[in-house]
Design goal:
The protein has about 375 residues and is mostly beta strands. Helices cover about 0% and strands about 55% of the residues. The protein is globular, with a radius of gyration of 22 Å.
Length: about 375
């Protein structure tokens, strides 16, 4: 795993910033370079130009084979409405190359690349088995219009204990794109101080995407996944929601997240570097309003993954966060409340994961 970043916060003495982020692993590589000018004009409009290249070989680390290479670039402007609120607008041009195969790729991914963009097929030979198989792929370009609104009154970004943050973002492909869709995201987090240093926190979120025009579904690499530290703890990360024919996560176009915590008081010298809490999580990932079909282990029996068929998953437990020199370490012990056991033939069961650990951020 390669992770690195470089940032110059005072480029040429003007307050401008150049940032380079490199993230690499066995299944995903993302490289980004961006330039931010916080003083584009006298109204404090901030402008950021960025270029990102991503090379993803699987949806998630345990999923079926899938190759996605995407180059994205474009500007974004942020305009402050007040001390705590700003709006964002921007454009993003994306050039994508997707590749699946007939042996080990999700059926849904194979169908998507054959029905969207500029499809192509390639015949390949496996010397080890002397069998032939087919690669299915597609190339396409999109131009997305992006907008957003952010209202943040938290007393600090990391380990806040007062205030709230509300964020809405929306992106839609403009006419002329080879593949057309829209995606919306909403997140709300609030901290409520209690007596004796205890604090309640509520994080609620919803994400939804849908195709437009002749596009059959949102691109496979834009799917949402659930379970794990950022969604419903106690359920295996990324495994909530639709599965492909191998039982691997495929993701969905609709996600609900609800993480509710009672934060315990900490000694003052640790208050901004460590946090212990008890949590109650709810959430789920679904496929709404599209014609994707998912099957059970037998490959014949359809499974319904709409919100009306699958209710919210729930869990409870304890969590610890620790800000170390290498990043934010997060640990949790979660107990699923309503995990379902599959029958091994017509239905997939929920994957439990009581202890979970991640390194990242909590912005």
């Amino acid at each position: 795993m390669l992770n690195g970043s470089y940032a110059d916060s005072d480029f040429l003495g003007s307050g401008q910033r150049i940032a380079v982020n490199l993230n690499g692993g066995a299944f995903s590589k993302v490289y980004t370079i961006s330039h931010t000018n916080p003083y584009t004009n006298i109204d404090n409009v901030q402008r950021t130009e960025s270029i990102t290249f991503s090379d993803v070989t699987q949806f998630v680390s345990s999923s079926s084979n899938f190759s996605s290479q995407t180059l994205s670039l474009g500007p974004t402007w942020a305009y402050p409405i007040s001390e705590f609120m700003y709006v964002r607008m921007g454009l993003a041009f994306n050039s994508s190359h997707l590749l699946t195969n007939s042996l080990s790729s999700a059926i849904q991914a194979q169908e998507w690349v054959q029905q969207n963009g500029h499809p192509f097929n390639r015949l390949a030979h496996d010397d080890a088995t002397n069998n032939y198989y087919v690669f299915y792929g597609t190339d396409f370009h999109t131009l997305e219009a992006i907008s957003g609104w952010d209202w943040d009154t938290r007393n600090r970004t990391l380990f806040a204990d007062r205030g709230f943050r509300q964020n809405i973002s929306f992106s839609v492909t403009v006419p002329g794109s080879n593949v057309t869709y829209w995606i919306a995201n909403y997140q709300f987090i609030k901290y409520v101080p209690l007596i004796h240093g205890f604090t309640l926190s509520f994080l609620e979120g919803a994400d939804y995407g849908a195709p437009l025009g002749d596009t059959t579904a949102i691109p496979p690499y834009r799917q949402f996944f659930g379970g794990g530290p950022d969604n419903v703890r106690g359920f295996r990360e990324t495994f909530l929601g639709p599965r492909d024919q191998f039982g691997n996560p495929y993701g969905g176009n609709f996600r609900i997240t609800s993480q509710n915590e009672l934060i315990f008081p900490m000694p003052s010298k640790y208050a901004q570097t460590a946090r212990v809490s008890a949590f109650f999580d709810m959430g789920g990932v679904y496929y709404q309003g599209t014609h994707e079909t998912f099957y059970g282990p037998d490959g014949v029996t359809p499974e319904c993954w709409s919100f009306r068929c699958e209710g919210l998953k729930k869990s409870f437990g304890v969590a610890v966060q620790w800000l170390a020199p290498l990043g934010l370490f997060r640990f949790s012990l979660g107990v699923p409340i309503n995990a379902q056991s599959g029958n091994g033939l017509t239905t997939w069961g929920d994957e439990r994961e009581v202890f979970q650990f991640s390194v990242g951020n909590a912005f």
